[in-house]
Amino acid sequence: MDYKKLRIVFMGTPDFAVASLERLINADCNIVGVVTAPDKPAGRGMHMQESAVKKTALANGLNILQPEKLKSPDFIESLALLKADIQIVVAFRMLPEIVWNMPSIGTVNLHGSLLPQYRGAAPINWAIINGEPYTGVTTFKLKHEIDTGDILQSEKILITEEDTAGTLHDKMKEIGATLLLKTIQNIASGDVKETPQQVLIENEIKHAPKIYTETCKIDWNNSCTQVNNLIKGLSPYPGAFTYLGDKKLKVFAAEKELTNPLVPAGMYETDNKSFLKYACQDGYLKITSLQLEGKKRMQVSEFLRGYRVT
Predict the structure, then answer these.
(1) What CATH homologous superfamily does 3-200 map to?
(2) In 3D, which of 237, 226, 243 has the Cα closest to residue 282?
(3) pLDDT of residue 274
(4) Can you give the residue ranges of every domain in the chain?
(5) Same topology for domains 3-200 and 213-306, yes or no?
(6) Quick one: how far is CA 98 from the chain centroid?
């Protein structure tokens, strides 16, 4: 079957999903509907904001559904009327069975890890926090338990020393978009094999739970590498943090200085001109990009020009 004849409903909300939607549009896929989050008030003026996916759908004249509740009878009826052959999910809410089980082919999800590893809400962050040398993207069929469905295709992505959650996110959304289109094409041609995740489990499963405030607090008793991985894995959002005096200090980038620290872990040193460094278990981390509570993000030299650290 020609993949362009498949009736596709696309579900997604943030920027990460836009690359996939645009890839399908550019490949002339038959997108009969786009499901995204309702508009929400945001910013200082609390003006109504449309999701990144909605903006793309509007620009391409696509049919848009924005349900408050995914089990509402009105939404279920509207979705059924689209008569989708397949649903595609990229960075969207957890779907009830009545939704994911509706199309004849089923619902395909794009996930930001090499499943079965890093199931959960924050796979990009946790792969970097845990110091993984690589991660990847996976397409799989949705079923009851989250991120456990049969795998269709996957692609490995190397994590470099310079990567942050932000840079990996940007690489992953493009590679994932290409993999998703290839998966749809292979499904249409019958050239895809579904592999149960249980078959691929060789070692302990690492999870990727939602990031909470306590996750972001830096423990300077850890090694320089562990702390630096936490900083990179949470940069630029939501940001790892520590304290400078009694003020919260977000840290977005740092450099390792592996030497015997002259002060206890968690204490800082500075010349009030060019460097601010905190002691770790096995050295220092020199902060290069930061944001003090109540101020904008800036480089450390700019920060020290306007703020005297005591």
Answers:
(1) Formyl transferase, N-terminal domain (3.40.50.170)
(2) 226
(3) 94
(4) 3-200, 213-306
(5) no
(6) 26
Joined together, the tokens standing for residue 152 give 């269709």
Longest dimension (CA), the chain: 70
Concatenated DSSP letters of 199-267: HH--SPPPB-PPP-HHHHB--TTS-HHHHHHHHHHTTTTT-EEEEETTEEEEEEEEEEE-S--SS-TT-
Tokens 């596709």 belong to 8
| Span 52-81, pLDDT tens digits | 999 999 999 999 999 999 999 999 999 999
Spell out the CATH class of 213-306: alpha beta
Asked whether 110 and 138 are in contact (CB, 8 A), the reply is yes
Q: Which of 37-51, 105-119, 252-266 has the lowest mean pLDDT?
A: 37-51
Q: Is 265 exposed, middle or buried (0-12, 13-18, 19+ CB in 10 A)?
A: middle
Render pLDDT for 160-194 as a digit per residue (tens, 0 to 9). Answer: 999 999 999 999 999 999 999 999 999 999 999 99
Identify the weakest region by mean pLDDT among 200-204, 214-218, 259-263: 200-204
